[in-house]
């Protein structure tokens, strides 16, 4: 039939076939990558307004031989829908703690906070708190240097349960950051219920600074809110000097973005900022 013919044609569309092949390769890569530990942690520096390095964010990359270095945009979604984000996230967390333990022995790196992205699916695991504490204990990493980045998707969860887990980890000095702030669903009352240390202004607002008046107003509102709630603020995606100047002039204390430093492999970060790379 004609309809069938059309379906057949669509099915064999070479572009779609290639996309499907890539998808299959990526899911296979994900499982294999977790099993064979074929992931790399990259790391992006965070600075205060005086230009001092104060911390870094861990960003995951997949190193598949056939595909080269693949960014999280291509596999985090798949990891989320397949549930593989739970073992993958556990691996990233453990590896992040290993990095922190190593940094503790380097005077130049020992004071840095290392932030890692945590999926709401990880947080939802009944043993999440125990897993984080086990990773810290196993590696000897300092809990007060570990920062967990959550997104506003946590507000779609049982907020009391989330807050309970956060408080349990807070009691061990682990801190929390609310990532991509302003893009999702959060109300002032919810914000107050979570023991957060930090808000991260999403890049979508920073991008249009300083020309766009709406973006400027939103950034100001976030900075005001953070002051009220006594939270640190990091602006992410700072790409231009003009964006930086606006943020600094408006009281944003911490900056992250290509202008200041791109994500690089952990080893490169350690070479650039650690004692080994200095005279
Ligand atoms: P995110 O947490 O918002 O991370 C910031 C993203 O912005 C990173 O993209 C980073 O490379 C990029 N970025 C930083 N500065 C700039 C800039 O100045 N300009 C532009 N255009 N981009 C900038 P990346 O590494 O591709 O990560 C994308 C997202 O994947 C992350 O967004 C995060 O949501 C997720 N992700 C990355 N690693 C992990 C992980 O280990 N676990 C989980 N659950 N998610 C992760
Ligand atoms: Ca993040
Ligand atoms: Ca972010
Ligand atoms: Ca983002």
TrEMBL record:
Residues 23-277 form the EAL domain. It comes from the Bacteria. This is Bifunctional diguanylate cyclase/phosphodiesterase.
